[in-house]
Amino acid sequence: MKKRITAEAVRQYAAVSKDTAAIHLNAEAAVKAGYKRPIAHGMYIMGLAQSLYLTDHPAGWITSYSMKFQKPLVVDTGVVFHFEPRDGHIEVKVTLEAGDVIASGTFSVKEMK
């Protein structure tokens, strides 16, 4: 599933989460930290992955999750969320549209009756 990570979505997440670190919101601070643009919060990306998965699987309930971040995700970037059932869990991979892996992990999902 493709999604564009916008500066506005990151601002909204920062306001709700109270994580207003400058690298997420301020271009100058992000550049000083070595990024091209502000970067998305890791927890925003993980929460978005869960939300996207559950949108397509409304009878599911995520009981646990784990995610590792390989690269920061700069705002105003298109990403693809991949979900694959495997051995009783869902493997999750978040990639740039060009294929570079941003994050990967797993969800344990319980089907609700």
Q: Number of helical runs?
A: 4
Secondary structure class reads alpha+beta
Distance separating the two termini: 26 Å
Residue stretches low in confidence (pLDDT < 50, at least 5 long) are none
Shape: elongated
Query: What number is the mean pLDDT?
Result: 94
**Tally of individual domains:** 1
- Helical fraction equals 25-40%
Protein name: MaoC-like domain-containing protein
Pfam families: MaoC_dehydratas
InterPro entries: HotDog_dom_sf (IPR029069), MaoC-like_dom (IPR002539), UPF0336/Enoyl-CoA_hydratase (IPR050965)
Domain MaoC-like: 4-86
Model description:
The protein has helices spanning 7-17, 22-25, 27-32, 42-56, and strands at 2-5, 60-69, 77-86, 89-96, 101-111. The longest helix is centred in the middle third of the chain and has 15 residues, at 42-56. The chain has a single domain (2-111), classed as Hotdog Thioesterase (Thiol Ester Dehydrase, Chain A, Roll). 19% of the residues are buried. Helices cover 32% and strands 38% of the residues. A five-stranded antiparallel β-sheet has the order 1-3-4-5-2. The protein is an alpha+beta fold and 113 residues long. The protein is built from four helices and five strands, in the order E-H-H-H-H-E-E-E-E.
